[in-house]
User: What shape does this take?
Amino acid sequence: MKFKRIVPLIVVFLILLAIVLVRAIQEEPVDLRKAARIVALAPADVSAEDVRRITMYAGHNPDDAVALARADDGEWVVESRYGAPANNADIEALLNTIAGLTGEFRAAVDEDAAREPYGLTEEDAFHIKAAGADDATLVHLKSGRAPSPHTVFVGRHGDENVYVSDVDLRSEAGVAPEDPRDGLDHTQWLDLNVLALDTETVERVSLTMPDKHLALARKLDEEESADSEVGEGESSGGNPAGPDNPGEAPALDAQPMELDMQEAPALDEEPAGAEFTWVLEEGGPGLPFRESGVDTILRGLSGLRAVDAVDPEADWGFDEAGFVCEVDFEGGAAPVRIEGARPEPAAGGYVRREGSSVVYEVSGTQFERLFPQGSELFELPAFAYDSDALASITIEQPEGRAQLARLDDEWTVEAPVSDLSVASSTVQEVARALARLRPVDYSDSADGTGLDEPERRITFETQDGDTYSVAIGGPARSVDGVYCYFDDDENVMVLRRSDMQRLFVRPDNLYERTLTQLSSADVASLAIEREEDAFELQRREDTWMLVADGTRRDAGDRPATALAQSVVSLQASRILFDTESLDDEVLATIRFATLEDNEYSLTIGVGDEKGHPAQLSGVGQVVLLDSRDVNALLPASADLLDDSEEAQSADAPPASPEDGPIVEFVEPVEEVITPEDS
Assistant: This one.
């Protein structure tokens, strides 16, 4: 091709190329977000500062909504928890999540029912609504079903479009993943830090509890040194001085007990460089003060944490509770007063700061940081024996008197007497608990403690002949326990309720209340005698035969074995020590024999709501059986038949001697047979 013919073609190509380049330069760049159809779900003109209220709820239960509101001072509160302070950081994080939420377009649906596959119907969806001034809605988002582990369908209220987002608003709101429709946690948004005081500036703490008052003060070391020159009638720990021993706490009255009291550990030494020490300024039981216990109170003041906020209008018992913690600071800072209430001493409690309407629920551990048990602050008296050092124990209580004795290195029950076996582990536990008994609290006064006429007293004698006692009064008002006197000492102590229960065992619990030590495999035959539907079960090697109404039929192995097991493993609910014979109307008598030819009879009386009186041959006391156990002992004979034999004729002939030996009952012999004989 000649060059002259190529030139026009080159010119045309260059012109076309120039046109393409010009158009490319004039076109706007492609928005990749628009190309992928990803949009912001919150209006661009809405900022976090505009939001005054946030409401979160499950669509099927809009009344159970978490409502957060911004107060006039800019701080957030949880309206749905009685206006308690909220965790501002968590709420700001939620607002940022809402403002930055985006979604990829998935579908457009114009009817609510059509949103069901996406979980975005009004009822199925999870809603988060942010409102501004005058409660005007700024954004209302809905979160639906999760199509994959990392994505979720979302939408805007009133918008037909469905989007997919990688942010799960349910999770952001604190809804448990395993319960996506419910489980909205109001407490997640609370600021549960009740107290955060600067304990470095605390100079005095005054504690008032229902049964005591004391005050603790912080003193400079040089002041403490000067105070060591105790004047007449004063004591270094703030305790009253004894007339014969000025400057020291009076010794406990009971001289024998003084020798056996647990030796008080040395008080904690001040760390090197410390500039102050804590002393008891008011109150106390007149026993050595433990300065280390003040740390418990200071931890409560510096970081007391609640579990929830509760209705401040409800009656939590603040007026009559008597729990008050007053804190004074150095430098003239305003004092802080915290009130407490503990309606159930075994549970947690409630606290509120003076001048605040917010009432917090706290755990028992947190409550006792502000209002500690006396054992935290004082060396309370305690027994310090090995249980082998005890020779006898006497228990006096409304449930009955018991006498325990240690003979030949074994504990036995001398009273009340029963033919049943002694529950050795229970008796040993009583001895161990008593030998190491220690109180956890004290009371300033015996008034209202029930110790003027104690209903319970436990006394023990040592192998050396020394005798001590613990008298029990009424329930304690500060902790879950009971008031007591240690060896009639004038100081009122408090035992844990659990320790008291370990000591004052019901007399019949000192015995094994299982009536026999047999198993169902030991039973050769069993007969139930009653006015109607009497029957007998006879074991034939590995099968059972039922004899009723003069006929003999195969019994089901499972129901027959279960009945035999119910009889031999029967446990009495009570032992009636004062009743030696069953005089009431007899409901039924159960006779059973073992493969070793031991025979027993259990007579059951007509019962009431308390149970059925019963007596086992060889046992000299009547026992009480639970009504449910008696029902299991007296089934209908038809319930014991083998299902495959129910269609057999009721006139089936009696078994011949070749069928195996038949165990027949004879009247019990004079010899007394106890469960141990088996």
User: Anything to note?
Assistant: The first strand starts at residue 38 and ends at 40.
